Amino acid sequence: MKVSTKWLQDYVDLKVDPAQLAEKIERTAVEVDEEYRLADGLKKIVVGYVKSKRPHPDSDHLNICQVDIGQKDLLQIVCGAPNLAADKKVIVALPGARIAGNVKIKRSKMRGEVSEGMICSLQEIGFADGVVPKKFADGIYFLPADAKLGETVFSYLGMDESIIDLDVTPNRADMLSMRGTATELAAIYDKQTHFTHPQIVEEAPEKTADLLQVTVDSKLAPTYLVRIIKNVTLKASPLWLQKRLWNAGVRPINNVVDVTNYILLDYGQPLHSFDYDQIAGQQLTVRLAEPNEKLQTLDEQERQLRPGKDIVIADTQGAVALAGTMGGLRTAVSDQTTTIALEAAVFDSTRVRQTARRHNLHSEASMRFERGINQSTVAEALDAAAMLIAKLGDGQLTKEILTASLTEPEPVTVITSLGKINHVLGTTLSVTTVKDIFKRLGFEVSTSATDFTVVIPPSRWDISIPADLIEEVARIYGYDNLPATLPTSVLVPGHYTYRQRIIRQTCQLLESAGLDQAISYGLTNKVKASRFMLEPSAATELNFPMSSDRTTARMNLISGLLDDVAYNVARKVENVALYEEGRVFYRQADQTRPREVEHVAGALTGEFALGNWHESSSKVDFFVTKGIVEFLLKSLGIEKVRFIKAVEHDDMHPGRTADIYLGEQFIGFVGEVHPTICEEYGIKRTYVFEIDLQQVIETPKHEERYQPISKYPAITRDVALAVDQSVENAEITNCFYDHGGKYLQSVQLFDVYQGSKLSSNKKSLAYKLTYQAQDTTLSDEQVNLDFERVLQRVEEKFAAVVR
User: Minimal CA–CA distance to 786: which of 722, 731, 719?
Assistant: First the structure.
């Protein structure tokens, strides 16, 4: 909602800097996207008068103009606009001017002719394409005849007005109107509003009800009012109205359409105008769409209506408008229109929202109907629009409003107490202060001791419970004025629970085994959800699924992994190894809510290890997959795991599947997916496993104990031994470990020599021995003693000679 501060001044006296006003709105009411003026950054753009024009001698589309800007000499400006005409006042950017995009205008030559400036279109001085009147969309803009030569154009075009762009939340739909915003600001700044209210003083003797018959289903349209304006002349709106519209982001079209948009912005009340003469039978009916009914809307698209769903307004020939969303082309106002049937209504918000979403027709009107409108001003908005159309179009109102349905809004009464308000806000407000806040908001309030009985006006339909009133007090009192206290709590070190540790360890182990993590949807279709199950279960189906592929809560993880495998294979990724940890949903037939169980599953296809120049590739098979499962369970400390041939899994290969048992308890299976399933997914031979991780978590585990790395320095000794060719390295290494002493940590063979310096039946093996203690720094004497002892043992056992 783009709010003009100048328009606001018509309703509430606010002498506040626009930037400060925007900040106050954001702190108190709704978010502000930006605050700006179209004139910001522009300069030396003035009113000019085209005295004459002549064709450029070297161009078929350029014209040479003599332009008067109120100075002694005329300016010569070359312009190529197709609608350029003499005796018109135009927008002139002088040499040195800055126009939109920070473009600087210079004195230049265009095909040999001097151009001392630029005649501008609205877009060239910063107007968005969507708000420029269609008459001037492809050319320059003509200023009013009373514009003074040489003056800046900003005030004539409304570019000097500050605009505050509000991001209105759904609960504050009252601020989707200028009057609603003015009421809010009056409450914030403790000011009085001064709204004008239309008074019909002249009507034709002919009654509206005699010209049109309207039948309404009050459930679809609780309020439906119509006025008729006769002898209307369609023409361009006056500049003051056009300025208000384009500053609000709306394109001016003609005086009738512009008035309905103006009232929409002013009151927040959507209106629709029909060409009265195009209404078949002079009858309108508000009803639901019928089977096979179609409507060509104002955007010239033919739409298939949903029977029993879409609210339509119909005449005797069929639908002429989608209620609250968009009008129909057949009864649209055109240049030949002379009589207007003007509608103001309140429609079923739920149906309007569903229709707008179904037909992708989200409009300013539908947004307001969805969020709510002020039902107490429907008739007033209709009168204001009808009077303005009659005034601008030289028309005449028929007598009285045609009331097809009318629901008077009932005031909402909310009771709260001073104690409750102060308790929630942490304040010590008095009865007088709170009562004053309610009055500033326009609420009727009565007090009894410290209790407040508050009557909410129809303009604030978002308030219905005591918590809403407390929020209003906090807003108007000022969030910055509320006392701030730090929460009191005991700080404890954070840590994972046992369950979380096992789950994270499971993921780490599978990743270390070469699998990548996948995250699949928790919802799938009923067929896929019912496959690969570890236990019998009823399906958990959604009442309102988001699509036909996401109707049922999953009862296995493998189906989602097979979708991921198929996705990769379809994109030429042949080698896939994925795992997923997540929950499946089991339910007994007599249960409403399913039981959530932690599972882990994997899916592998293609090659598990790629080959290279000295190693062949390793394809995924049953034993590779089984080995991953064994590695996982063993690393988690699970003992007594058994694998038993399985034949009861319909979705698995009967000869290549094994059930996994923990003692006597079934916890999962591993094997090859049935070829028919692989064919369905469009994948090659694929191996999977799925394990009930919940049972693994609950099973007692054999914990491994690890010794920390020593923080003390290590000492190394190198030795080369000449031994017979028949002596193996492993034998010598084991001897070092067996007799090297308690400080020997590692033995490393780092060189083997056979050559002319040794006899033919001998070889030289060079070793590095590393000594390190866990609790002290070793001395050379301690290491030398152990080293000499083990060397002596090696020499004796292998007839080795130290080189």
Answer: 719
pTM score of the predicted model: 0.68
Task: Name the CATH code of domain 2-37+163-189 (choices 3.40.640.10, 3.40.50.11540, 3.40.190.150, 3.30.56.10).
Answer: 3.30.56.10
Cα 414 versus chain centre, distance = 35
Which tens digit of pLDDT belongs to each residue from 365-402? 999 999 999 999 999 999 999 999 999 999 999 999 99
If we measure between CA atoms, which residue out of 754, 777, 563, 601 comes closest to residue 677?
A: 563
**Site of tokens 């089977």:** 291
Residue 348 is labelled as binding a ligand? no
Distance CA 194, CA 203 (A): 26
Q: Is 472 annotated as a binding residue?
A: yes
Neighbours of 308 (CB within 10 A): 9
Tell me how far CA of residue 539 lies from CA of 26, 66, 693, 697, 771, in angstroms: 48, 82, 21, 25, 63
End-to-end Cα distance, the chain: 92
Quick one: 167 exposed, middle or buried, by C-beta within 10 A (0-12, 13-18, 19+)?
exposed
Tokens of 232: 């209307």
Is 410 annotated for ligand binding?
no
Is 715-802 the same fold as 498-698? no
What are the structure tokens assigned to 773, written together? 């203690």
At 742 the three-state DSSP class reads coil
User: Radius of gyration (Cα) for the chain, nearest Å?
Assistant: 42
State yes or no: 780 annotated in a binding site: no
- CA angle 788/790/794 to nearest 5° reads 115
| pLDDT tens per residue, range 285-329 | 999 999 999 999 998 999 999 999 999 999 999 999 999 999 999
Q: Spell out the residues 6+ positions from residue 373 whose beta carbon is closer than 8 angstroms to its own.
A: 173, 268, 269, 270, 346
